[in-house]
Amino acid sequence: MLPWILEVGKVDINNKVALVLGSVKGIGRGIGLALAKEGASLVLTRHDWQESFWEMEEEFHKTGARFEIVDVDLLDPAGVADLARRIEDRFGCLDILVNNIERGGWPAVHGPYVEEQWDLEMATTLKAKRWVFDAVFPLLKRSRDGVVVNFSSIAAIVGRSGCAAPLFNEGYSAANRGVSLLTETWARMGAPNVRVNEIMLGVFETRHAQGTRGWEEVLTDDEKRAVVARTLIGRTGRIEDAVKALLFIIRDAPYMTGSVIRLDGGFVLGGEAVPPMPVGVVGV
């Protein structure tokens, strides 16, 4: 009976139309490839990291899935509006939005803030998410079961403090705190047919750990060890961790909306040990 129960309410991704932002490499590409494996039709955006364009195209061609790559600057509202029109013209609706766009300047890499860096972090991490959602929301409402997944960071909680201080700037942290407000507002707007949830990432490969300039070239071994030591699971996040969480939200959580999954391996809770229970004085 249990296997039957586990299948109840599952959402079939096959033939769904998914828009995956920031899919040229890293977590975005991993998510796109996973959705392709599930049979989704994909719209994939890219702008930066041109040296990875060819590899991206090869990876998605190998899946045999139907996909379209759109070169678009998501900081340009006109470009975002054109993206929405292209989706409507080709597919007529949108079932899944993976709002995976962000920009965070590491204090350890960039040093003291300049206004341009602050503005870029705010515009990319927060503002662009909003304009994309606004442009495609009418298409999501045409879906019988629309899903939006916003990606954010635990920078919203820890900010530039402790062993995370070399990783997270204040602008990036503030922008990520704003993402949760968008998640809650959009969940109200989308109900009951468009679910909106958020995955708040910890220190992940290709984002703030392995595969980034800051981790590979700037942080000292002691600084890296401090990050891992604070993480209860004892390692940094992997792309497959983010993929599994996203697939859970889409396929297995039809009753969940307006929620935040903190996928950080216990980083936020780390650093504070639980001491043995004291003997107490009652009855002594």
Q: How are the strands ordered across the major sheet?
A: 3-2-1-4-5-6-7
Determine the mean pLDDT: 94
Strand fraction equals: 5-15%
* Name given to the CATH architecture: 3-Layer(aba) Sandwich
Poorly predicted runs are none
Order of helices and strands: HEHEHEHEHHEHHEHHHE
Number of domains: 1
- The CATH homologous superfamily is named NAD(P)-binding Rossmann-like Domain
SS-derived structural category: alpha/beta
* N-end to C-end Cα span: 52 Å
| Sheet with the most strands, sense and barrel status | 7 strands, parallel
Q: What is the count of DSSP helices, taking H or I runs of 4+ residues?
A: 11
Compose a concise summary of this entry.
This protein is α/β, with parallel strands linked by helices and 284 residues long. It has helices at 2-7, 26-37, 53-63, 77-91, 107-110, 115-141, 155-158, 170-190, 213-218, 221-230, 239-252, and strands spanning 17-20, 41-46, 67-71, 96-99, 146-153, 194-201, 260-263.
What does this structure look like?
Strand 2, helix 3 and strand 3 form a beta-alpha-beta unit. The model has no long low-confidence stretch (mean pLDDT 94). The protein has one domain (11-263): NAD(P)-binding Rossmann-like Domain (Rossmann fold). Helix 2 crosses helix 11 and helix 6 runs parallel beside helix 8. The chain is built from eleven helices and seven strands. The protein has a seven-stranded parallel beta sheet with strand order 3-2-1-4-5-6-7, with helices on both faces. With 284 residues, it is of the alpha/beta class.
